[in-house]
Design goal:
The protein is mainly α. The protein has a domain of 88 residues. The protein contains 7 helices and no strands. Helix 5 packs across helix 7.
Length: 150
């Protein structure tokens, strides 16, 4: 003997869709008390800094400004901008044409270390260069920095 219960009414597809939409609405809903347009002090955008395009290539080792494309493409790159070169500032020693990219970066790091007045200044100048380097070159500078005394 089987017991038959009251047959349940089948839900319509429209009713199921409405329930799913309602669940999504309440899951994604933002509480108006928590939703404010005010930004906290650490989230605010510095419009002056955002308006400056990123530096192309490595900066001048003497004054730190962006070097012109012509200065960056010199066959004997001394790391100087045209103004510093004309004023007689000391640049990175010129390496032979057979020097690798790692040797050129190491010579630049050695020059920055030799011309810096303190370890903090050296690190600041290397960090400025770091932001302009490609990933492979960053490893070379990191390796050079790890070999230096603190």
């Amino acid at each position: 003997m089987t017991r038959q219960g009251v047959p349940r009414q089948r839900r319509s597809q429209r009713s199921a869709d409405n329930d799913a939409a309602t669940r999504r609405y309440f899951a994604d809903r933002v509480d108006p008390a928590e939703d404010t347009d005010e930004q906290s002090t650490y989230d605010q955008l510095d419009y002056d800094r955002a308006a400056v395009p990123p530096m192309r290539g490595l900066p001048c080792v003497a004054c730190g400004v962006e070097r012109s494309t012509r200065d960056q493409q010199r066959t004997c790159d001394d790391g100087l901008c045209e103004d510093c070169r004309d004023s007689g500032a000391a640049g990175v020693p010129i390496l032979p044409a057979t020097a690798t990219r790692a040797e050129i970066l190491t010579a630049r790091c050695d020059h920055i270390a030799a011309t810096s007045t303190s370890t903090a200044e050296r690190n600041a100048r290397l960090n400025r260069d770091w932001r302009c380097l490609r990933t492979g070159d960053r490893f070379t500078v990191t390796d050079w920095h790890a070999r230096q005394p603190a």
